[in-house]
Specification:
Chain lengths: ~475, ~230
């Protein structure tokens, strides 16, 4: 019975020219956005590979020079693009894509793609994820608002129930049929996406299918929520016009109002420091110690005294190595502690904001979906943090190798010491190990749980709405 | 059969159906006559279980509508003033869908046959219902009653707006169903059809059944005169 109702609903939807037109538009948007994103990602990947090769060439061919000078010459490392960025670009356009690694300074990721964009970006960026988050729910609303209210108006509801069909069977059949209609509509886009992903090569592709599975589950749950709610509202309202008004309001609250509201409220309640303040705090930490009572000069003087005592010497010139190199290593260690403390705090705060957004999904499922989607696509802040931490670790290793060379090979006061290509080649090319899949699931957990809660609530509402299905208003 | 015992329904202060006692036997066509708002459609809705009675009971072939509305509905067919169908489906597709919902899935050849028995040609059966006249829709309704093998048939102004030929054709089908043992309750304004088709006629006014006549009782009388006298009484 339920399957028969679902089948009729499915056939009826596809015979409706208005639905076919809307579906074609959505499908074209999905495919075009996917293909354009693929093109952008491929271009960015190509540029990154070319820039990485050029950086390596420049590094190796920089000529002989003091290893400390080479530390200041520095290298740029580039953030690889997740293959799933084709689907959801997440925060990628708004965070840096490369970090300049040099001695003494921990630079933040720079070159935001959004900086290169035109003012048209104000209208938002179309991606397959945005189309699924905003346009497909709208299509579901337009498809489902009359599912039962329309049948009531046309008289077919009376006809159906007079045959002994239970309201619950009817409501579930309607929801199932509409769900199948949307699933079939999205199949070609999913096929194209799977094809593009299958072609994704390189280490970034690790765990790709597990991530894609997470995306498929999250989006299926989200769209199922809309189908269930739309049918429930249609069952509970007297006219299809009322159902449409209520459903469009829900859509607007979820897709337009909630994201802006959540962003503002969460930014107010969990603020991040301004850039100038943050850098001043960092500088203060380096110069005065994390507790503010351990000035850098005193620390370095203590360090010199302890080192001389350890080697039984009274002058740094008598040490069996270049003390200046050791001081640089120590300075890097101190700066590293400050970096870990301040950036750790900042990143924890940003991740707390992200979690709060996912939890705000309790009020609007799109927020939970967005959070899960970016996490699975590898374009959320957790993945960006992984890149920033890996780049900093690479910088520390890079500076350590150079400082140790200075310490062990340059005589004190010998400013003519120069290292060469043999040392430069010891420094490896930066390769970002992809964040393990279980970490991506961990980052998506809050969003996924909120979506699961919504799905249960929506199915409960659907079930409950069957009891409210009335043919005659008495 | 269809049976009402002291069936009463109120809408706030207004009594829509007042202690209605009615028994329609298999093979009988009962025409319920009355002006607008007299309680005809409410009676039909009470038999369908779309309304809950304030007191009394409605039964379809022994099944209490209030106790098990789904089981009661399974035993009857309902044809409203305008049979509601899906315009993007053909006549035969509509019949297929509705008869499946009624628990009587049938082969397509059978469905065409049922539509043909109801007066719908094969060509018409294959056309989308969006192009159907009212008479054609009523024929699909009759075919549905045949398909579900209903023991009772509820009709709400079934011939309203039909042209004389379509109305005559509809009556012919109705009499055929009655001959097959179906108990039929027809709420109508159509005095001519009531006189032609009904084995009994009841006049309902302000929810009360004020008069009942058998076919033989009104054989040589002017039904219109009787009806108008009852209304003005």
């Amino acid at each position: 019975m339920i399957l028969g109702i679902a089948r009729k609903e499915f056939v009826d939807a596809w015979r409706d020219g208005r639905f076919r037109l809307g579906a074609a538009l959505v499908l074209v948007l999905l495919l075009v956005s996917g293909l354009l994103a693929r093109q952008q990602v491929a271009r960015a990947q190509g540029e990154r590979d070319a820039a990485t090769a050029l950086e390596r060439k420049n590094w190796l061919e920089q000529g002989d020079k003091n290893s400390h000078s080479a530390g200041h010459y520095g290298v740029n490392v580039f953030k690889p693009t997740s293959p799933l960025a084709v689907f959801d670009r997440g925060i990628e356009p708004f965070v840096g894509t490369s970090v300049f690694l040099e001695a003494h300074r921990q630079n933040q990721a720079a070159f935001l793609p959004a900086q290169d964009a035109t003012a048209m970006r104000r209208f938002g960026e179309l991606s397959a994820a945005v189309a699924l988050q905003m346009l497909v729910p709208l299509l579901i609303v337009l498809l489902a608002f009359g599912a039962l209210a329309g049948e009531r108006e046309s008289g077919t509801l009376r006809q159906i129930l007079s045959l002994g069909v239970r309201p619950r069977q009817l409501v579930l059949g309607k929801a199932l049929g509409l769900g199948a209609t949307v699933a079939v509509l999205l199949l070609p886009a999913a096929g194209v996406m799977a094809f593009l992903l299958a072609r994704a090569a390189g280490p970034e592709a690790t765990g790709l299918w597990a991530r894609a599975g997470g995306l498929a589950l999250s989006y299926s749950a989200y769209l199922a929520i809309f189908v269930a709610l739309s049918v429930a509202v249609s069952a509970s309202t007297r006219t299809s016009r009322t159902a449409l008004t209520i459903l469009l309001s829900i859509w607007a609250l979820n897709c337009i109002v909630a994201p802006r509201l959540a962003s503002d409220v969460i930014h107010q309640s969990l603020p991040t420091p301004k850039l100038a303040e943050f850098e001043a705090e960092m500088q203060k930490g380096v110069m005065e110690g994390l507790d503010g009572h351990d000035p850098r000069n005193k620390r370095l003087a203590d360090f010199q005294r302890d080192t001389l005592a350890k080697h039984g010497k009274t002058r740094v010139e008598d040490l069996p190595f270049n003390f200046q190199g050791l001081v640089m290593l120590e300075s890097e260690r101190i700066a590293g502690e400050v970096f870990d403390f301040h950036f750790g705090k900042l990143w924890d705060r940003i991740q707390a904001q992200d979690r709060a957004v996912a939890l705000a999904g309790v009020g609007a499922p799109m927020l939970a979906l967005r959070s899960a989607s970016m996490a699975f696509a590898g374009t959320d802040f957790a993945h960006h943090r992984h890149f920033a931490v890996s780049a900093e670790q690479h910088r520390r290793e890079f500076v350590r190798v150079l400082n140790e060379d200075l310490m062990n090979n340059a005589r004190p006061g010998d400013h003519r010491y120069a290292a060469g290509r043999a040392l430069w080649e010891q420094l490896p090319v930066f390769r970002l190990e992809p964040l393990p899949v279980h970490d991506a699931w961990g980052a998506a957990r809050a969003g996924v749980l909120v979506l699961a809660g919504w799905l249960l609530a929506a199915l409960g509402t659907l079930f409950f709405s069957a009891g409210r299905l009335r043919v005659v208003n008495a | 059969m269809l049976e009402a015992q002291k069936l009463t329904k109120r809408f706030q202060d207004r009594v829509a159906v007042d202690s209605l006692d009615l028994r329609i036997e298999p093979g009988e066509i009962y025409a319920l006559l009355g002006p607008n708002g007299a309680g005809k459609t409410t009676t039909i809705n009470l038999f369908l279980g779309f309304l809950t009675p304030d007191s009394g009971a409605a039964r379809v072939a022994g099944t209490s509508v209030a106790e098990d509305p789904v089981a009661a509905r399974r035993k009857l067919a309902y044809i409203p003033e305008m049979v509601s169908l899906y315009p993007r489906f053909s006549g035969v597709e509509n019949l297929d869908y509705f008869s499946r919902l009624g628990g009587h899935a049938r082969q397509h050849t059978e469905l065409y046959e049922l539509l043909a028995r109801s007066g719908l040609t094969r060509e018409a059966a294959d056309r989308r219902v969006g192009t159907y006249s009212k008479g054609m829709r009523q024929k699909v309704g009759i075919a549905l009653a045949l398909a579900t093998g209903a023991k009772a048939l509820l009709l709400d102004e079934p011939t309203s707006g039909l042209d004389p030929a379509a109305s005559h054709e509809f009556s012919r089908m109705l009499r055929k169903l009655a001959k097959d043992g179906v108990a039929i309750l027809m709420a109508t304004h159509d005095l001519f059809r009531a006189r032609e088709d009904a084995s009994r006629i009841g006049i309902i006014l302000n929810g009360r059944l004020v008069a009942q006549y058998s076919r033989d009782e009104i054989k040589d009388q002017d039904l219109e005169k009787i009806y108008l006298e009852r209304l003005s009484a």
